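Sanity check

After download, print the first record. It should look like this:
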Amino acid sequence: MKNLTLHNGVKIPMMALGTFRAAGDEAYAAALAAIKMGYRHIDTAMIYRNEEQVGQAIKDSGVPREELFITTKLWPSDYGYEESKTAFALSLSKLGLDYLDLYLIHWPKSYERNASSWRALEELYQEKKVRAIGVCNFKIHHLEHLFETATIKPMINQVECHVELQNIFLQEMCLEHDIHLQAYAPLLSSKVQDLLDNEALQTIADKHEATVPQIALAWLLERNIIVLPKSTNETRLLENYQSLNVQLDEADMAAIRKLNKARRTFPDPDNTDF
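Expected structure tokens:
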């Protein structure tokens, strides 16, 4: 498994299993299969309502806890200093873990609510209850305002990122502050058929004897972006995992850069109603 090193020295696996919209037994089976396949990074969230199932899969996998990297997230209804700490404890209990590897603020809200929640995350980190902390869906202005009060900068910014939403400028800004991007919906989520039908990607896939999803993931990995493809199908889990072995050249990278459309499949972080 390829790893990146965060600005606090913690190593994070670059391939993770995403579990959004995986519920109950389905989430359990996917997480267990992924871990047995070689995945070492599992991404969940309080709002996914599958933390208990993910935790059970971790337990049943037989893989030592220290070999796994587990992420969950704080939902906006729990933002605030005390509320964030309570929500963290509940997530930890549902997962059946003694500590988390990464805890993230799930969506930006008001600058004040972001800041108060971040203060709680900083304390959880300082108390060694979590090995790394970060944010999700933060644009440049959200990060700039967070920096005004933060004593610890985020290690991660998890955002929608794929061949049609490439986040070039956001990544440049984040790297200036030693923040790594994680890509959710790296295969366009519900719009995956558009990805599969893309002729430019198919040409590159044929060249490398790979699949189009593997090319889309390899392109992100080549940019040092952590990928979180979600699947509950074991064949696709393996296909996604094997994208770690695909090596793209500069011509491939340049061709894919031309596919950027700034197209979102999930809400714009500045215009959410939750």
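If your output differs, re-run the checksum step. Summary of this record's structure: The radius of gyration is 18 Å.
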